[in-house]
Write a structure and sequence with these properties.
Blueprint lengths: L1 H44 L13 E5 H4 L11 E3 L24 H4 L19 E3 L2 E3 L24 H11 L13 E5 L18 E6 L4 E5 L18 H12 L2
Antiparallel strand pairs: 1-2, 1-3, 4-5, 5-6, 6-7
Length: 254
């Protein structure tokens, strides 16, 4: 009897694990769909402009000093929503867990300095950013945002110079004429960075990841060749080749 039970457990555990991860993937897709609806609402209220990108593509709140050239001394450390964090409240409700994939480790979103609670801190010199669980428009230049009503292409001037330079060197594309297709992913699963100072891909769903595209449809993108799992992108504001390869991966798998 014990042997039979042990055998059944051995058979069932992989199936249960797979079912649990499938549920997380579905929940993640639902969150991205909700963020997509929020982006539509935001764009309709802001002359078809999407939320401004902050210093980092995965932050949802930052000190004013990080994204304004000049800030009064008494406002320097006030934290403001940025990226898809600007959807909080009016456009997607007030549950910040929406901004984190269910597969994201608890210690990431519950971090007292960089997690959910730090989103609401003001005049705090130590908690200068709040990490989100998704990467937002990574190749978009800081201080710029594309229009949501673009005619299948976003203007080349919104793309980060390092990103355009990367494409010119790796794809032979002329930076002066390059335009990224509208299918460019706006929000992608798998946040970069951690409180331990490591650079890692997070929250990928085993053999792939979820992405929200410029036409606001979200889908699971299978990582058949292990391309995403092989990447360790830079978390800095200038990005890096691995980060751009990640974003290009989602675009090519529209």
């Amino acid at each position: 009897m014990v042997a039979i039970i042990a055998l059944l457990i051995t058979i069932l555990i992989p199936s249960l694990t797979k079912a649990r991860e499938m549920a997380k993937r579905s929940s993640c897709l639902a969150a991205l769909h909700q963020i997509g609806l929020g982006l539509v609402g935001y764009a309709s209220d802001h002359k078809a402009r999407l939320p401004l990108r902050g210093t980092y593509g995965y932050n949802i709140a930052e000190h004013k000093s990080l994204h304004y050239e000049s800030v009064p001394a008494d406002q320097k450390y006030i934290k403001e929503p940025i990226n898809y964090g600007m959807l909080y409240g009016k456009y997607v409700g007030k549950d910040l867990r929406l901004f984190y994939c269910p597969s994201t480790p608890r210690g990431f979103w519950s971090d007292p300095t960089y997690g959910i609670d730090s989103f609401f801190l003001h005049n705090d010199k130590t908690s200068y950013v709040t990490w989100g669980g998704y990467m937002y428009a990574a190749p978009v230049d800081v201080g710029k945002c594309p229009r949501a009503d673009s005619k299948k292409v976003y203007p080349s001037e919104v793309w980060h110079p390092y990103f355009v330079d990367y494409l010119a060197k790796t794809k032979g594309v002329d930076p002066a004429t390059y335009q990224m297709p509208l299918m460019q992913a706006l929000v992608a699963d798998g946040v970069i960075g951690s409180s331990e100072g490591q650079t890692v891909m997070r929250a990928c769903h085993g053999n792939g990841a979820n992405a929200l595209y410029g036409d606001y449809h979200a889908k699971f993108v299978q990582d058949v060749k292990g391309e995403l799992r092989a990447l360790t992108p830079s978390s800095g504001p200038n990005g890096g080749p691995a980060l751009y390869r990640m974003w290009e991966f989602f675009t090519l798998h529209y």
